[in-house]
Design brief:
Chain lengths: 402, 178
C-alpha cells in the first residue's frame, strides 16, 4: 500500500526506575523474609519445595522468551519484529534464572530437603527399589551435571541471540539476521530434545517411583503458555505506560491468539496424560491422581482446569476479547496464577502431601520471585532500545494487520 | 449503451485501485463490490464490509457436534444398553472426550464447507458466477452498479484518473466460463 509515514522513535529506551523498581525491590525483600521465616520455623522442606517451584517457574518463563524469539527467527515471522525486545529481555535473564534454579536444586539435594524419594540422607537409604540404571540416572552429581548442561546450553543461545540483535542495531544489514536464524534452528533442536528431560529431572523425579512419558510435553506446554502470558503482560503494560506506540491491537490480537491456542494445547496434553492413566487403571500410575483426588487437593484439581482451560477458552474465544488490552491483561494475570497452581499440583501432593498449605511461605516466595523477575527483566529491557531498528521485517511489523 | 448493468474499472496495481475507491467515495458513488486476485489489507474497512459471521457458524456447528457425540454416547452406552467396560461408570466422561472432540471438529469442518458453498453459490456442477475473469489473475476490479449511477461518464473519468487500465460496460451481471 505504498509508502508509509511514521515518526516513531526507535531508539527510545525504557528507563527502569520509580514505582516499578521500588515495588519489585519490596517484593524481593518480602520474599527473602518469608523464606527466612520458613527456615526458622522449621518448615525447611516446604520452603525448599516453594523455592524449587518458583525458581523453576522463573527459569521456564525466561526460557519461553528465548523459545519465542527462536520460533520467530526460524519462521521468519514479520509481525513480531517490533516487540521482539521484550522476549529478548526474558532470554537475557535466562542465565541468571538458571543459576538460581541450579543453586536451589543443589542446596536442596545436598541438604536432603528435595527429591526425598531417591535422594536419601546417609543412613536412611534402605528403601531403594530402583534398577541400577535408574539409580545411576538419579545420582546427585549426574543430576546436577545434566541440569547445568541443559540450562547452560539454553543460556548461551539466549546471550548469542541478543548479542546478534545488538550487532544488527549497530551495523545493519542481513548478516545478523541470517546468523540468528541459524543459531535459532540449532537451539530449537537442542531445546526440543532436552526440555522433556529437564522436566523429568526437576519435577517428575520428586516422585521417582511414578513416571509418565507425557510429563515432558505437559511441562513444556505449561512453560509456553505462562511465557506467552508473561510476554503479553509486559507488552501491554509497556504500551499502557506510553512506550512502544507502534504496538497496535493487531499485535495484541496475535499475542492473545498464542495465549488462547496454547491454553488449549496445555489442556490437551494434561488430558492425554490423565486419560491414559484413567483408562489403563494400573495402580502404579493411578497413585499420582489418587493423591490429587482427595482432601485439600480435590478442589485445587478442578480449579486448575477451570483457570487454565475454561477461563481462556470462554473469555478469549471472540476476536474482540483478544484485541481489548484489559481483557487480555486480566486473563494473562489469571493464567500466571493458574500455572503457579499447576506447578503446585505437580510438586506438593507427592512430596509433603497433607502438610502443604497456602501461607506466608507460599505467598512470600511468589512475591519474591515476581519481584526478582520484574527487576531482572525490566533492567535488561532498559539496556537496549525498545525496537530492533534494523530488523529486516520491522516495516512489516509496523503495518501488521489481522 | 442503454442497457449497461455494471461498470467495471480494471486496474493492474492495487494501490491505484485503492486510490480509485477513495475517488469514487469522495464523489458519493456507490461501489457494488471489488474483486482482487489476492487479499488486500484494509480494504474491508474502506468498503465498510461487516465482519464475516463464519466464526459464529463454526461455533454453532461445533456445539451441534459436541451435543450429538455426548447424546449418542449417553443413549447407547448408559441408557439403551449399559455395559460394564473395564469397571468404569457407564457414563465415563473422560473416555468420551476424544470422540466428543472428534465429532465437534468433524461437524465444524463439514458445516464450514456447507456454509462456504451456500455463501458463494458454488455447488458441484454449477458454473461459477464471475463478473470479470481476470480478477482471479492479474486485474484488480472495482464494480459499480450502473442503475445507482446518474452520470456514467463521470464514473469512467474518475476511474481513468485513478489509473484504470480498462473500463468495461457490461450489459450482463455475470459472464460465464463458456
Amino acid at each position: 500500500m505504498g509508502a508509509h509515514h511514521h515518526s516513531y522513535n526507535f531508539s527510545e529506551q525504557f528507563s527502569f526506575g520509580g514505582k516499578a523498581k521500588t515495588i519489585s525491590l519490596i517484593g524481593i525483600v518480602l520474599g527473602v523474609l518469608a523464606i527466612a521465616y520458613g527456615f526458622l520455623t522449621g518448615h525447611a522442606e516446604r520452603t525448599f519445595l516453594n523455592l524449587l517451584l518458583m525458581s523453576y517457574y522463573f527459569t521456564c518463563v525466561c526460557a519461553a522468551g528465548l523459545f519465542f524469539c527462536a520460533i520467530q527467527f526460524v519462521a521468519q515471522a514479520g509481525w513480531s519484529a517490533s516487540l521482539l525486545r521484550v522476549p529478548q529481555a526474558f532470554s537475557k535473564v535466562l542465565p541468571f534464572a538458571s543459576v538460581v534454579l541450579v543453586i536451589v536444586v543443589a542446596a536442596g539435594l545436598f541438604s536432603h530437603n528435595l527429591y526425598g524419594s531417591w535422594n536419601h540422607a546417609p543412613g536412611e537409604g534402605a528403601g531403594h527399589h530402583f534398577s541400577d540404571s535408574k539409580a545411576f540416572y538419579l545420582s546427585p552429581l549426574f543430576f546436577i551435571g545434566r541440569l547445568i548442561l541443559f540450562l547452560g546450553a539454553y543460556s548461551i543461545f539466549g546471550l548469542l541471540l541478543s548479542k546478534l540483535s545488538v550487532n544488527e542495531d549497530v551495523h545493519g544489514g542481513l548478516k545478523s539476521y541470517e546468523k540468528s536464524i541459524k543459531y535459532s534452528t540449532i537451539f530449537l533442536v537442542i531445546f526440543g530434545f532436552t526440555t522433556p528431560l529437564w522436566a523429568f529431572d526437576t519435577i517428575m523425579s520428586l516422585e521417582a517411583h511414578w513416571f509418565s512419558t507425557m510429563f515432558g510435553w505437559y511441562n513444556f506446554a505449561a512453560m509456553w503458555v505462562s511465557g506467552m502470558a508473561a510476554i503479553s503482560i509486559v507488552v501491554i503494560l509497556l504500551t499502557k505506560a506510553g512506550h512502544m506506540p507502534w504496538i497496535k491491537d493487531s499485535h495484541i490480537h496475535n499475542l492473545g491468539l498464542f495465549v488462547f491456542a496454547f491454553s488449549i494445547f496445555w489442556t490437551y496434553i494434561w488430558f492425554a496424560q490423565f486419560l491414559l492413566i484413567y483408562y489403563a487403571n494400573i495402580p502404579e500410575e493411578t497413585v499420582y491422581f489418587f493423591k490429587r483426588w482427595e482432601g485439600f487437593y480435590l478442589p485445587l484439581f478442578w480449579i486448575n482446569l477451570i483457570i487454565n482451560f475454561l477461563s481462556p477458552v470462554l473469555i478469549l474465544m471472540s476476536r474482540d476479547a483478544k484485541r481489548k488490552t484489559n481483557i487480555l491483561l486480566s486473563v494473562c494475570i489469571l493464567l500466571l496464577f493458574g500455572h503457579w497452581l499447576d506447578y503446585y499440583m505437580m510438586i506438593m501432593p507427592g512430596t509433603i502431601g497433607d502438610a502443604a498449605g497456602f501461607g506466608i511461605v507460599e505467598i512470600g516466595t511468589i512475591l519474591g520471585f515476581a519481584g526478582l523477575f520484574t527487576f531482572a527483566v525490566l533492567s535488561s529491557l532498559s539496556k537496549a532500545p525498545l525496537a530492533p531498528k534494523n530488523h529486516p521485517f520491522l516495516e512489516e511489523s509496523l503495518n501488521h494487520q489481522i | 449503451m442503454s442497457k449497461i448493468k455494471y461498470i467495471l474499472g480494471l486496474f493492474d496495481d492495487p494501490d491505484q485501485m485503492m486510490h480509485g475507491i477513495d475517488k469514487l467515495q469522495e464523489n458519493k458513488i456507490g461501489i457494488y463490490d471489488v474483486y482482487t486476485p489476492m487479499p488486500i489489507h484494509g480494504i474491508d474497512d474502506k468498503l465498510g464490509i461487516k465482519r464475516s459471521r463464519l466464526g459464529f457458524v463454526a461455533f454453532c456447528c461445533g456445539i451441534t457436534g459436541t451435543a450429538t457425540a455426548l447424546g449418542l454416547m449417553y443413549f447407547t452406552m448408559s441408557y439403551d444398553w449399559p455395559m460394564n467396560i473395564g469397571g468404569k461408570p457407564n457414563f465415563a466422561v473422560a473416555n468420551f472426550i476424544p470422540i466428543t472432540f472428534e465429532l465437534t471438529v468433524l461437524f465444524c469442518a463439514l458445516g464450514m464447507v456447507a456454509a462456504f458453498f451456500y455463501a458463494t453459490h458454488l455447488f458441484p456442477g454449477r458454473a461459477p458466477r464471475v463478473m470479470e475473469l481476470r480478477a482471479s489473475d492479474d486485474r484488480f476490479v472495482i464494480a459499480i452498479d450502473a442503475s445507482t449511477v446518474t452520470d456514467s461518464t463521470q464514473v469512467d473519468s474518475l476511474l481513468k484518473e485513478a489509473g484504470a487500465v480498462e473500463i468495461k460496460h457490461n450489459d450482463r451481471k455475470y459472464i460465464s466460463y463458456e
